[in-house]
Amino acid sequence: MQQLAVNKIRCYSHHGCLPEETQIGGYYEVDLILNADFTEAMHSDQLIHTIDYCRVYETVKKCMAQPSKLIEHVAARIGLQLLDNEPLLHSATVSVTKINPPLNGILDSVTFKHTSYRSDESKLKD
Length: 126
Hints:
By secondary structure, this protein is α+β, with helices and mostly antiparallel strands. It has four helices and four strands.
């Protein structure tokens, strides 16, 4: 088992519990650790034998475009969608970082990290 890291996918999205967050939006970063057997790709040097990170990027952008109240929900949705889209994927660790969350203080960011596994049977409520 090997890992492919996809780092700092930047998004402007409309997640949050406050009305201002869903109207105005804010900046987010998504980091991924994708676990799979990349042995065949290492030997063949062919894109068909690996996880196409361009396709992964598009999956993340699509999931981030769908508003949610909680970044926990967004991270789980991304992980499950990646597992649905990528047959080679064994598990996906998704970190969603909310940059400058609104609160009465100074805080750079908040990050939620979640690992989804191929054996996950759970479905999310939209």
